[in-house]
Amino acid sequence: PDSMANSIWDTRTISYHGCVVQLFFFFFFISAEYSLLTIMSYDRYIAICKPLHYGTLLGSRTSCVPMAAAAWGAGFLYALLHTANTFSLPLCQGSAVEQFFCEIPQILKLSCSHSYLREVGLLVVSTSLAFGCFIFIVVSYVQIFRAVLRIPSEQGRHKAFSMCLPHLAVVSLFLSTAVFAYMKPPSSSSLSLDLVVSFLYSVVPPALNPLIYSMRNKELKSAVWKLITG
């Protein structure tokens, strides 16, 4: 709502508390989404590689609810830790954040204390955990593709691939944009590039998620095809 109001009234201000809340919810949702994407890769692995065990491991509410709760709980703790650590720093380099939302790297530029290294260390730990989840997703899909290629019928392979490809597309889009945003060399950093990259990883994946996941819907695919062909 603040972004929409700022666009309409051509303003670029946000309160201190508004920035705190924005940063918290940004990290809460982005970390919860990544956790859920990791869980979904495990779901695909069990469904394709161990289908007879699916009902026992993931086919009931008692098994799905704890994993979903763990994803949201981890996202909450992760966001709380980052937010508290970031805004405990003294900010004395002005009050202008060179970004269209409150982002940790831009806020750290306003700090005048060496204690910002705590947040840098926390980001390194977070990156290591994210890399661990990435390895888990990659290993899961290696096992999945090996199992799919052993399916004798073409129809069975097509069904398995159609189950995995939307999730794989979302993971690829999510990770590629985020990695490019945070891993690019500082020498290549510029205000316009930072704005474009942040838009890519914070806006584009959530906007495309519904479209990617719903492409398995035959009615939607037929409507999109009619729209394209006129």
Automatic annotation (TrEMBL):
<keyword id="KW-1133">Transmembrane helix</keyword>
<keyword id="KW-0716">Sensory transduction</keyword>
<keyword id="KW-0807">Transducer</keyword>
<dbReference type="InterPro" id="IPR050516">
    <property type="entry name" value="Olfactory_GPCR"/>
</dbReference>
<comment type="function">
    <text>Odorant receptor.</text>
</comment>
<dbReference type="GO" id="GO:0004930">
    <property type="term" value="F:G protein-coupled receptor activity"/>
</dbReference>
<dbReference type="GO" id="GO:0005886">
    <property type="term" value="C:plasma membrane"/>
</dbReference>
<feature type="transmembrane region" description="Helical">
    <location>
        <begin position="120"/>
        <end position="142"/>
    </location>
</feature>
<dbReference type="Pfam" id="PF13853">
    <property type="entry name" value="7tm_4"/>
</dbReference>
<feature type="transmembrane region" description="Helical">
    <location>
        <begin position="163"/>
        <end position="183"/>
    </location>
</feature>
<feature type="domain" description="G-protein coupled receptors family 1 profile">
    <location>
        <begin position="1"/>
        <end position="213"/>
    </location>
</feature>
<keyword id="KW-0552">Olfaction</keyword>
<dbReference type="InterPro" id="IPR000276">
    <property type="entry name" value="GPCR_Rhodpsn"/>
</dbReference>
<keyword id="KW-1003">Cell membrane</keyword>
<dbReference type="InterPro" id="IPR017452">
    <property type="entry name" value="GPCR_Rhodpsn_7TM"/>
</dbReference>
<dbReference type="GO" id="GO:0004984">
    <property type="term" value="F:olfactory receptor activity"/>
</dbReference>
<protein>
    <recommendedName>
        <fullName>Olfactory receptor</fullName>
    </recommendedName>
</protein>
<keyword id="KW-0297">G-protein coupled receptor</keyword>
<keyword id="KW-0812">Transmembrane</keyword>
<keyword id="KW-0675">Receptor</keyword>
<feature type="transmembrane region" description="Helical">
    <location>
        <begin position="20"/>
        <end position="42"/>
    </location>
</feature>
<feature type="transmembrane region" description="Helical">
    <location>
        <begin position="63"/>
        <end position="81"/>
    </location>
</feature>
<dbReference type="InterPro" id="IPR000725">
    <property type="entry name" value="Olfact_rcpt"/>
</dbReference>
<feature type="transmembrane region" description="Helical">
    <location>
        <begin position="195"/>
        <end position="213"/>
    </location>
</feature>
<comment type="similarity">
    <text>Belongs to the G-protein coupled receptor 1 family.</text>
</comment>
<keyword id="KW-0472">Membrane</keyword>
